[in-house]
User: Fold this.
Amino acid sequence: MSEAGTLRAEPIAGGAADGSGMATGDVAARPGDHPAAGAGPHEALLCVRNLTVRFGGVLAVNNVSFDVRRGEVFTLIGPNGAGKTTVFNLISRIYNPTAGEISFEGHALTHAAPHRIASLGIARTFQNIELFEHATVLHNLLIGRHTHRRTGLWSDLFFTGRARRAELEAREQVEQVIEFLDLQHHRDALVAGLPYGVRKVVELARALCTEPKLLLLDEPSSGLNVEETEDMAFWIQDIRTDLGITVLMVEHDMTLVSKVSDRVLAMNQGEVLAAGTPREVQNHPGVIEAYLGSVEDVSTLRRGR
Amino acid sequence: MRFLFKTDYGQDIALARHGGHRFWYGVLLALLLAAPWLFAEYWLAQLTFVLIYSIVGLGLMLLAGFTGLFSIGHAAFLGVGAYTQAVFVEMGVPFALALVLAGLLSAAVGVIVGLPALRVKGIYLGIATLSFGFIVEEVLARWESVTRGNTGMHVKAPDLFGLKLDTAASFYFLCLAVTVAATLAILNLLRSPTGRAFVAIRDSEISAQSMGIHLARYKTLSFALSAALAGIGGALYAHKLSFISPDQFNILQSIDLLLMVVIGGLGSVHGAFLGAIFLISMPQVIALSKDWLPPAIGQAPGLQALVYGAVLIAFVLFEPLGLYGRWLKVRTYLQLFPFYRRGMFRRQKTFQKSERVR
Assistant:
């Protein structure tokens, strides 16, 4: 495995050096520039290269490149409309990129069918929860096991011994996730009757049920209170350390971001502003400008008064 | 109130969840088996129609109630099944084989109709299936060399492996067997990955897809299974009526079928049966009440259509969960007495649905 990883890592490092870094602007900690990029644990799991998508006249994502290394928590930040969720939708193939490449473990995602993404090992949650409302929590999680189904239509229709065994096994797997995220209490509740905070956790649980290698979390803390956000931070850390799942997330809560992220990529208006450790990015002048406005903006305000 | 203490996963996937289920469904089955000796021939015929419509209803429930795809042309599948059965039985094909062929041919037609469903949804799918219904009705009327057009076809009593099922009771048992088999198949499907994939597509296509569900395949499959059940129901319907003509499979029939699943309660297997009972018993009730009503109302043409329409509007307004939903509420009221709250079954609005990725 590590051998294959080293082999795959080489073209990645090469790809980063081919001048694409120039266009992305100020990218501080590009894995390609990193000397240890080829080593086992730092191998890039997901590579995004020069990704561009255009909706009519709007450049939603403009020439974005980044690598997510195996076993890290990588966060996309940026003001509203920066194109973070669009990047997620490009990775999960809801949108087609206008230009650029996305590769996951050496597979080119840009030509994979949308439903194939889950079986490659990428699971996601949605910014505005997309659960199966009129099914129980347990059923939601079992749907998460869909990529692992081993029965066909006919064994399902007759519920053969094989289907029964597969069902029992799926429940065992799901039960582990329920235990991991403390959802025992809500197991048989309909999602439609659950409070927002619990739905958020159920969606995370459903994503974990697919046994992903890469987990895409779109604003995991949005709509959660302080306590629930802290729980979410613990879970993200546990998902990384205990389950060994790489996490790519979009998040606004900088406390959560600095607590759990290894690296952060800041975006604005579809372009990469800065990348690096949470501290580096937070202190980056471009990022401060994007969030707070520039000194000139403030002075124009003063003149107007 | 019954509390279930689950001690193994097997309990979760069992069809009968507890002793109460086993007892009451056992009683129901016993009653149905004893029906030919309990009821007069006329009522047995009505019960046979309930069973036939239940089979069709199960199919439409799978499509509309569990996959979220509405078909306003379902009578077309009924017609395809009925005519396939009639034509093959006349050619001398054994009954059982003809029944399977009726199901298969309807399924094949269902796949064709399912194709637009991959592109359009909601009201547009309704329009597509509606026009398909008209096309099939027209084909049945015009393809005279096979269907004999508007003169219609006579269908003989079924001949099951040399056993002539020409009495009302024997045909009733045949319908009962098919209904039980269809119900078990649907229940099995719903407790396995295929059925869950349908439910996932109904509730959120976008996340179903990101969970790895092949939308096109499962939507087509749902159409095929639904059409197959409608086709089998249609084949039995042809035998029961012993005469079929294209106008039996027109838009009114389609609307009746849709009415059946909506009034029964979308998204529940019980709903298909309750809807079928409603659909068959309602004309009887109207006919009986005609004598009691003043002649100006009782003898007015279109009374049935008016009552159907009013009932449908009432259900959509006051009980969107249908008859089965009403039963659930009554049951919960009794179980929790006196702690039932009015808003218990009220669903929260699906808040913050993302519009962008839809």
Q: What stands out?
A: The longest strand of chain B covers residues 153-154.
